[in-house]
Specification:
It is a single chain. The protein is α+β, with helices and mostly antiparallel strands. It has a single domain, classed as Nuclear Transport Factor 2, Chain: A, CATH 3.10.450.240. Helix content is about 20%, strand content about 55%. The chain contains 2 helices and 7 strands. The radius of gyration is 15 Å and the shape is globular. The two termini are about 25 Å apart.
Length: about 110
């Protein structure tokens, strides 16, 4: 999504996830203003169950190693970079039929 500006597939994997909606809004805004995002993805290092969430979901502690991100918010905007590195996130999933949807996502302070 970040590298293409196309948010529909990501959107179909989420359900009322505020952090996810905010990320999609930023991606759409950057691309609609001629900007871009270049991200090399991430590697999941570990996943552990954190506990039950509201509305039948389960929250997981996810440790990831993210590659650096380079982005430009507009066609003539300043080139910016997010360093990347190891982070810990809380991800909440809810079963929907035969699949799961992300209902929450938050980066934890390290």
């Amino acid at each position: 999504m970040e590298n293409t500006g196309k948010t529909s597939a990501y959107s179909s994997m989420t359900d009322h996830c505020k952090a996810c909606d905010s990320l999609m809004a930023d991606v759409r805004k950057f691309y609609s203003h001629g900007g871009y995002i270049r991200w090399g993805g991430l590697t999941v290092l570990s996943v552990t169950v954190n506990g039950r969430a509201q509305h039948g979901g389960v929250t997981y502690d996810v440790k990831v190693d993210s590659r650096p991100t380079h982005y430009q918010e507009t066609a003539d905007g300043e080139l910016r970079q997010i360093e990347g590195g190891i982070t810990n996130e809380l991800v909440t999933l809810k079963r929907t039929g035969q699949t799961f949807q992300v209902t929450g996502r938050a980066r934890l302070a390290t």
